[in-house]
Each structure stands twice: as C-alpha cells, then as structure tokens.
Amino acid sequence: MSKIGIVGSGSWGITLGTLxxxxxxxxxxxxRNQEKKLALEKTRRDPVRLGDFxxxxxxxxxxxPEDLINQEYVIIAIPSEFLREYLKKIQNYIVTDKLISVIKxxxxxxxxxxxxxxxxxxxxxxxxxxxxxSIAREVLAKIPTSVVVASVEEKYAQEVxxxxxxxxxRVYFSKDVKGCELGGATKNVIAxxxxxxxxxxxxxxxxGALIVRGAREIMRLGEKLGAHPLTISGLSGIxxxxxxxxxxxxxxxxxxxxxxxxxNLGEILTNLNMVAEGVxxxxxxxxLSRKINVEMPVVEMVHKILMGEITPxxxxxxxxxxxxxxxxx
Length: 329
Hints:
Elements: E1 3-7, H1 11-22, E2 26-30, H2 34-43, H3 47-50, E3 60-62, E4 73-76, H4 83-90, E5 98-101, H5 114-121, E6 126-131, H6 136-140, E7 145-150, H7 154-164, E8 169-174, H8 177-200, H9 204-225, H10 229-232, H11 235-246, H12 251-260, H13 265-272, H14 277-291, H15 297-306, H16 312-320
Parallel strand pairs: 1-2, 1-4, 2-3, 4-5, 5-6, 7-8
Antiparallel strand pairs: 6-7
Helix pairs in contact: 4-5, 8-9, 8-11, 8-12, 8-14, 8-15, 9-11, 12-13, 14-15, 15-16
C-alpha cells in the first residue's frame, strides 16, 4: 500500500483517487479551500462534475498542504493556467521525489508543458505524465479505458504504470513526455471545433474530416517541437482526440456546441461551472504556432471564434475555401 496525495479536487482528481483507493492505497485529496473540503466531506458527491456518483468514505479530503509531506506519490491535477501560482504555495510541502502530472495544457508566454513547469520547482524529482482518452464518469463506471504514462526515466514510467493499472484501466508506458503532453493539450482545442460542428448540425463526414485534419495539425506541431509522430497517433494523441470530440461529457465539445448556437462565451463558461482547458489553450497554441511557423488552420479558427473575430459559420467557410493542397504536408 502507498500513501498518495492528489493536488486538485476536480473530476479527474476524485476519479483517480477513487481508483487508487480501490487498489488498496491511502489517498488524500488536497482541495483549494476549506469550503470545498467540507462540502465534499459532508455530501460525498459532486453532481456537476460526477453526476450521481457517491465518493467513497475512505477517500480523504484536506485543505492543508502539510498533508502532502508524508505522501509517497504526489499527483498534480489542477488546470494548467493555475499551475505555476499554485506550486509556489505548496512547493515546500512536497517532499517525495515521485511526482505525477495529469494536467493537459500549455503555459501562456513561456509555452511550457506542465511537466516542464513542475521541473522548474522540483529539478531533482522524478516526473511522470498520465494522459489518454479517459472521461472521468466512464472510468468511475469501470468502463474499459486505456491510457499512457510517460517519463524520461523508463523505470519510473513502468512503476507509475503499475500504480494505476487495473482490469478496467489499462496503462501503457512511454518515454515521449513531450508528445503525450502536446496531444493532451491540443486535442482540447480541436474538440471545441467538433462541438461547433455539432451545434451547426453537421454530420459524420464533417467531424471525421475535422478529426483527421486536427490530428495532422497536432503532428505538425509535435514534429517541430521534437515529439515522436507515433506518439501523436497513439492514445495520448488521436485516441484522446476522438474521445473528446464525441463524448457528451466533454467540456470543450460542449463549449463549441453552445457557441455555435449563438450563446456568449462568458455565459457558457459560467453555466459549465468547470474549466474547459481548450479555451485558454486555443490562444496559447495559436501564438505558439505563429512563433515557430507551423500552419494550424483549425486552431486558428477556434482562436478567432473565441476572440469574437469571426462567427462559427464564417470559420467553416474559410476552412472549406482554403486553396487545395496535398493531404500530407
């Protein structure tokens, strides 16, 4: 049995905490404030994020970073845009050298991946990244799921693989951290585009084309940044992309669908009451693509829609009227 601390009490933090608890570990989830801790302890539910799921009584909640001190593993599961500031608050309480990131996003201005930000604070510690097609509610329902864990230290990747692996949560391992994180961040932007197609009433032809062209954009970005193209074609890339573009629970897809129906972005995010990583990531990845000269038309159109520069209909017209090109470029 291991003692495991999870930083972040969102849907994914609670889901992974439940899985690890069922495997016989002692799990403590660090909440952002005392109010959230008390609410989760009292109700053992989070209906907005997790529906009717009842949180196990043995899953511990805390609002005190000191509870991270004695953990063997620390899993970081907070939105990427808040990562740096939150690490400043808790860095002195993370003693273990075994860290795991389950964050999907890219930092604004620095264009750093979550693991790179974590490495800044903990240069001597082992860091693994868990990613892949994994809708929280499906994992809680023990619907068969496959993901990948990556670390530059292969033995540590295999160690974390065994930590999470179950008969319904199959874990593969990889050394391509960059590829895994790029796939997880960029697919959220493409998922917003998929939701836009749903909101506009388009069909399978359109979404199939979007997924393939979106995947190609992720590959072009990954190739320029040193990721392995086969990683993008795997679970953390195309696998996660397909799931996020089709799932009715995908926050990013929901944002796109509501935008296509003419709703205001602020209103959509307020009603969602959860972070849709693709909104923030769309602007960051668009700027990154311009900086390193990688053509990403789907990402560009999502960015412009979210900025209010064009309508969803205008974006579709611009994509379809681009000059003919070879499929692979």
